[in-house]
């Protein structure tokens, strides 16, 4: 591993160890992997590797915790179709700020902030740090093929978007996946593996999968499962600000992971998600 990755890995391990709101697999939630997804891009094909939902149980009391509550309130604020301009109401701006207020009080975000200040990548002042986070995650920009601001890092990564109504882009968050599946908008089609990737494990926290959402298909998505919103926010913000590379390898807990993080104009997150490379022996 190259030196910077080792340093970042140590930071990610610290974030992981301090993610006090993370759910425990088998206890706070259960998933059912079922079969491997097919290669098809069709929404209603018969090549479905999973006849049942991905989530068999989630302890929803956890969603009453402050950061989860604030996060979930943001999920219905977006127009999923790219090309449709986002109208941000004052209430939604207030909800964005409330979410940032709640996460910067958590151990994981405090650790990330301290590190970023030491590296001269973020302001020490909490209000200015929040402004930086707002710009990275919530400021709108025009995605490919659109002339008007129709997207943001937060919407793409955590909520999901559709392109041309047929393709799901982004959508890398397990809470949104669970809530949308519960509403009947998600059809889980099985887990994704290639020749080099490890077989997924229902008790691990990273999963590659295929699903359809509304009328669109996500041929291959990759998500953390059971982690808190603040862990993902802290991790992705760290990767975005510390690494000019769009892919960075980190090792933490049981995982060797590549974090993909595409910048948009160097100011905003275009997309970001984990790719499981292998499990480490504990």
UniProtKB/TrEMBL annotation:
InterPro entries: ENDOU, EndoU-like, EndoU_C
An example molecular function term from Gene Ontology annotations: lyase activity
Domain of life: Eukaryota
Keyword Ribosomal protein set for record: no
Cleavable signal peptide: none
Entry keyword Methyltransferase: no
Cofactor(s) essential for the protein: Mn(2+)
Assigned keywords, A-Z: Endonuclease, Hydrolase, Lyase, Manganese, Metal-binding, Nuclease, RNA-binding
Pfam name, any one: XendoU
Domain EndoU, residue spans: 4-278
PANTHER family found in the cross-reference section: PLACENTAL PROTEIN 11-RELATED, URIDYLATE-SPECIFIC ENDORIBONUCLEASE B
Subunit composition and interactions: Monomer.
Protein family membership: Belongs to the ENDOU family.
Name assigned to this protein: Uridylate-specific endoribonuclease
């Amino acid at each position: 591993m190259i030196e910077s990755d080792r340093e970042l890995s140590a930071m990610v391990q610290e974030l992981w160890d301090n993610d006090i709101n993370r759910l425990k697999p088998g206890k706070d939630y259960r998933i059912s992997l079922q079969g491997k997804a097919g290669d098809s891009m069709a929404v209603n094909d018969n090549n479905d590797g999973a006849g049942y939902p991905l989530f068999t149980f989630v302890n929803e009391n956890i969603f009453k915790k402050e950061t989860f509550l604030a996060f979930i309130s943001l999920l219905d604020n977006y127009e999923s179709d790219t090309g449709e301009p986002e109208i941000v109401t004052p209430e939604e701006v207030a909800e964005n700020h409330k979410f940032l207020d709640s996460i910067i009080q958590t151990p994981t975000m405090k650790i990330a902030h301290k590190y970023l200040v030491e590296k001269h990548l973020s302001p020490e002042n909490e209000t200015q740090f929040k402004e930086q986070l707002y710009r990275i995650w919530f400021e709108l920009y025009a995605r490919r093929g659109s002339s008007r601001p129709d997207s943001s890092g937060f919407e793409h990564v955590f909520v999901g978007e559709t392109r041309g109504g047929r393709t799901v882009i982004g959508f890398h968050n397990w809470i949104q996946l669970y809530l949308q599946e519960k509403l009947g908008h998600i059809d889980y089609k099985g887990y994704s593996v290639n020749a080099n990737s490890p077989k997924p494990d229902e008790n691990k926290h990273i999963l590659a999968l295929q699903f359809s959402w509304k009328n669109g298909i996500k041929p291959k998505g990759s998500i953390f499962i059971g982690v808190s919103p603040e862990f993902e926010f802290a991790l992705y913000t760290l990767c975005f600000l510390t690494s000019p590379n769009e892919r960075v390898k980190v090792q933490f807990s049981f995982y060797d992971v590549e974090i993909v993080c595409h910048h948009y104009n160097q100011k905003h997150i275009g997309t970001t998600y984990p790719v499981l490379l292998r499990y480490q022996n504990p």
